[in-house]
Amino acid sequence: MEETKQSYYLVVGLGSSGLSMARFLHSKGRKVVATDIDKSRTDAENILKKLGIVTQIGFHDQKTFNLAKAIVVSPGVPLDMTYLKTASQKGVPIVGELDIFSQYNATPVIAITGTNGKTTTTTLIKGMLNASGISTFTGGNIGTPLVEYLMAEQKADMVVAEISSFQLDLANNFKPDYALLLNVAEDHLDRYNGFEGYVESKWSIFKNQTSRDNAIINQTIDGFEIRVSKIASRVFSFSSQPDSKTIKKNGPVKDQVNDRVNARIFEGDILIQTKEGLQNIPTQTLTQLPGIHNRENIAAAALATLLAGGNLEGIIEGLENFKNLPHRMAFIREIKGISFYDDSKATNTDAVVRALESFKKDIILILGGREKGTDFSLLAPQIKKQTETRVKQIIAFGEARPHIQDVLGKICPVLQVESMEKAVKKSYKNACPGDVVLLSPACASFDMYENYGARGDDFISLVRELENG
Fold first, then answer.
1. Largest Cα–Cα distance of the chain, in whole Å?
2. pLDDT for 339-388, tens place per residue?
3. Beta-bridge partner residues of 57
4. In total, how many domains does the chain have?
5. pTM value?
6. DSSP 3-state of 380
């Protein structure tokens, strides 16, 4: 005789998102069971047990999955897990945190996704809105789970949410009032069935929007025109390409998508067309946000701020007060004329391309870690541009080092090392005054570190040791 479904919600994965979700559902009077295959999740287990929540730590039980009323999956949990597939086949709904959040949230939402630049853009929008007199809650993939906002006593005027593709994969009802797509490049190919699956996940942020909602999209993304034609919301574009017909700096302004707001990057300035006319945001002095990719992030953030009720004064003040985020093209120090930069957050090739674009030449690039279906050949055009070699040497470390040697060794000298310590010492030994040593790995950190932050911290510590002799 087959057992009948129970009344509990099963939360799978007890990182910060899963822990917050279990607490939130419990606060709403729901019966909750929580499980994590990682036996080290004892802190989460103790917190939940004190609330009376049943936990299963260090193992999964298929029966527990099969009998749940619904399964709430944390973003990092693979959706092809056998336990989930079997339960789904038995009719158990599989849901994600964005749909739970949407069910209870009444505050307007700005949602930011893209392969790179999400955290920077999210932080910029928060600063710009706050400077415009609009209070915000910032959460999502940036660190604080969104359901924490629902449990907070004090409410904000706007929720600013960084959203990953993993979160979007289970977002059937999530409908942000303002949705941003910054860029799409190869990443997480170990999770998706080809690049197209990842692309579909990113564009799905717009799928539930209506004509009352707003989409802010990088006009240079492949397939922009076709994709935009299928979006129901009002579309606003931004781009760093100088030959666009959308905005001309010294001529008439005509937006091919709409006539409300658009942004274009010209040299050091960003021009935005608003209802009040053409507005200029100067960016030439923003040394804490180097590179054209950061100008794109600023343009996207400015558009979102204006559409959400902010003003130009708040945008400029937010930019002036912005502090560079850790491990994102962060200048560490100069030692004997050699400049060291920490870009440990660059976990895919597109992020590394953007980092390399920020320097003209004489780069020693520290590359490597755990691959995610990485195509290192995408770096070749930036490593060697025509007859000029931008990267003098690649120091390859981690699991990916033999692959890096095979793919890039023919166009640039590659030195394989076993550790970050050896990578830093070799880069310093081989560099000359005026060179840049850039940690921009194009890989995940999990072969050697807990996360990209720990990897970047190790790099910084080792660079400081060089300075101390």
1. 77
2. 999 999 999 999 999 999 888 889 999 999 999 889 999 999 999 876 67
3. 36
4. 3
5. 0.88
6. helix
